[in-house]
Design brief:
The protein has 238 residues and is mainly alpha-helical. Helix content is 70%, strand content 3%.
Amino acid sequence: MRYYYVEPFPRGLRSIILATVIVFFIQLIFQATGSPRFILTFGLVPRLFWHGFIWQAFTYMFLHGGFFHIFINMFILWMFGRELETLWGTGRFLRYYFITGVGAGVITALFRYHSTIPVIGASGAIYGVLLAFGMLFPNRPVFLYFFIPIPAKFMVLLFFFIEFFSTLGYARDNIAHIAHLGGMVIGFIYLRVMAMSGPWREKRRIQRELDRILMKLSREGWDSLELWEKNFLREYYQ
């Protein structure tokens, strides 16, 4: 149940999805020529990154390995990112998205520094978004794999351990698990640092109080609220 309005397609989220789709179609055009130059230039190739191709830690997020890859990434971003942008605002949301995405790329390049295999996709930033959602809305029920109801905090823990053990080599696939794990680690560090700042801490306190009052309102009705709680809601939603 939602207790406040969440914009379906906030501006920052819309801009990310649009830019990613445009770049993906440009990528398809280059792939149709049979040349790997586009992927090698703008995908994250760890060995090239440490030889001056530093922009790759940013550009790799806009490339994807196929229609299913880009669809599932953008769908998950839309599912969890719109509420974060509603809560944080566009500027803070975009900053967090790109910090976790770039951070995941740098961590990947650090641990795979000899690799010449391109890493592509927004998954590092997506996992950062999942981490933030789980930390800010820990008890919010989500449907794991669209079927299994589970609190958001447990979903995040489950994904963390899956990516951790996959990074150790237990998964035999072509997925950049280190980027997923890196996005979550960078996101956790960023949120903890921000939580120590006064304005961020105050905003979280207000959000928790708002959630509590709205929960009470949904259970017991308007007349159950105390005068200060009614005034709090009027001030917040004016």
